[in-house]
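Figure 2 data, in text form.
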Amino acid sequence: MRARIQAWLEARWYGGAPVPAWLRSLARLFGWLARRRRVSGVRRAVRLPVPVIVVGNISVGGTGKTPVVIALVEALRAMGRRPGVISRGHGGSERGPLLLTGEATPARFGDEPVLIALRSRAPVAIGRDRPEVARLLLAAHPEIDVLVSDDGLQHYRLHRDVEVAVVDAQRRFGNGLLLPAGPLREPVARLSDVDVVLVNGSTAADEAGFVLRADQAVALDGSGSRPLAAFAGQIVHAVAGIGHPARFFATLRDAGIEVIGHPFPDHHAFTPDDFGFADGRAVLMTEKDAVKCRSFAQAGWFAVPVSASLPPPSIEAIVERLERFGG
């Protein structure tokens, strides 16, 4: 049912299908509530003793935000910073605030925070109240000198020193309407307020474009990795429970792989029943999905990690902004 509703909405958001009047009315209500929430949040914003970089988007669905968070943490660390990450924990059962430990599971803490912790090795905490989560993380890790807030653009109760918005070059802003008539959480004009706009997949000279690199496939059973190119010419099952599964399938096809696509809703809680393919073909999935499947993974199942190559001028702009605020 959820998948059918999502497909119906996306046909209107991105496919040019007519948007009913009742959806437009709900969008106007959503916009009014969003404006009130922003004004109220900014008025009561909590300032922390370290600078905060918020990474988010103005649309729902996948834009490549999680790889950007990981890349930003790595870039900050390379500059001598000691970053920590806070996240809502979407898809997890915990309300927080909680620190992630080595035993953290996606079912409790959410798939994205677990992936960020595994890939970046940065301290991570999750919870619905961002200021409270930040205080918990800083108390547990006093060495942190900059916080990265994952998917926090609309969480205005947390004061931010730098705002980074991520946009998908392919889908952009859909029909340009607010939820639920369109895919937007906030109007496109909101981007004029942020410090850095990163566009996933753009090659335009007037945009800060970046690409997601995928060149390895890592076996979920721990037996090692192989080049993604080793699957070229093969037919594989491709599994993606992310905001924009088609992008993952396209990445595999670009590598010369023949794809049998299996899209699932974002943050899908996978079970063994989702993998009843029974034809012996390899299964390739996103790294975000793999963290939820390791406990029942079989031979021939692989995660395909992606890495974001952020434009140096964008990194420089973020650092300059931090220094301007005494960070």
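Caption note: The chain has a mean pLDDT of 92.
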